[in-house]
Amino acid sequence: MHTRDKLKQTALALFAQHGYEGTSLAQIAAETGIKKPSIYNHFPNKAALFLAIFEEVESGIVALIDDSLTRSHDLPTRERLERLIRSCATFIRREHQGVFYKRYLLFPPTDVATQVAVISNDNEQRINAHLHVLFENGRQAGELRALPEAQFIAAFYCLMDGLFAENFYYDADTFERRLEGAWAVFWAGLEA
Questions:
Q1: Which residue spans does the record list as DNA-binding (predicted)?
Q2: Mean pLDDT, residues 83-87 taken together
Q3: Radius of gyration, CA atoms only, the chain
């Protein structure tokens, strides 16, 4: 693994565990096994390192959605949507990425908050494009009831945000039961 990648991997874990303010470049260097000045060969400062990680994590979510919808393209809308929700729910259970994502989506460091919002909004537009196609296909197939697309998208995000939060409160079995219940009610509100 290249030093740049090691730095990002180490910083991801430290930012997730100790927060942005609680993580220093010296800690990142020590955990990576390099001297602090070597970080500057790869990133001009801590904010740039953080943003590189945030962009990678956000892109990972979009890639996961791309993959889920591509692999399920021949299935009925109900199955595609359930697989998509389950795929997104597994993302948040990834050891450091899930904690990092939720923490900094809700509470971005002040000095990078504007950049975090831009990255997040750009990726949300990419996700919305996928949800648009899924919604249109479901409507055309007669699988989804008549409701505004904006409501469908808003409900999807609310469900995912709720599941992301639930992940931090419950063990895997309890989380699975809660996901099942939330999914059943969510689909009941969409089904034609």
A1: 24-43
A2: 95
A3: 19
Q: What is the pLDDT of residues 26-57, one digit of tens each?
A: 999 999 999 999 999 999 999 999 999 999 99
Note the pLDDT tens digit of each residue in 66-79. 999 999 999 999 99
Q: What interhelical angle do 25-32 and 3-18 show, nearest 10?
A: 130
- Alpha carbon distance 139, 137 (integer Å): 5
In the chain, the amino acid numbered 121 is N
Nearest 5°: phi and psi at 82? -65, -45
**Conformation bin of residue 75: beta by default, left when phi > 0, alpha when psi is -120 to 50:** beta
Q: What is the CATH number of domain 51-190?
A: 1.10.357.10
Domain ranges of the chain: 51-190
Rounded-to-integer distance, Cα 134 and Cα 130, Å: 6
Cβ contact 134:69 at 8 Å: yes
Length of the chain: 192
Q: What is the pLDDT of residues 125-157, one digit of tens each?
A: 999 999 999 999 999 999 999 999 999 999 999
- Alpha carbon distance, N-terminus to C-terminus of the chain: 50
Q: 1 has which bridge partners?
A: none
Q: Which two tokens stand for residue 147?
A: 């409701």
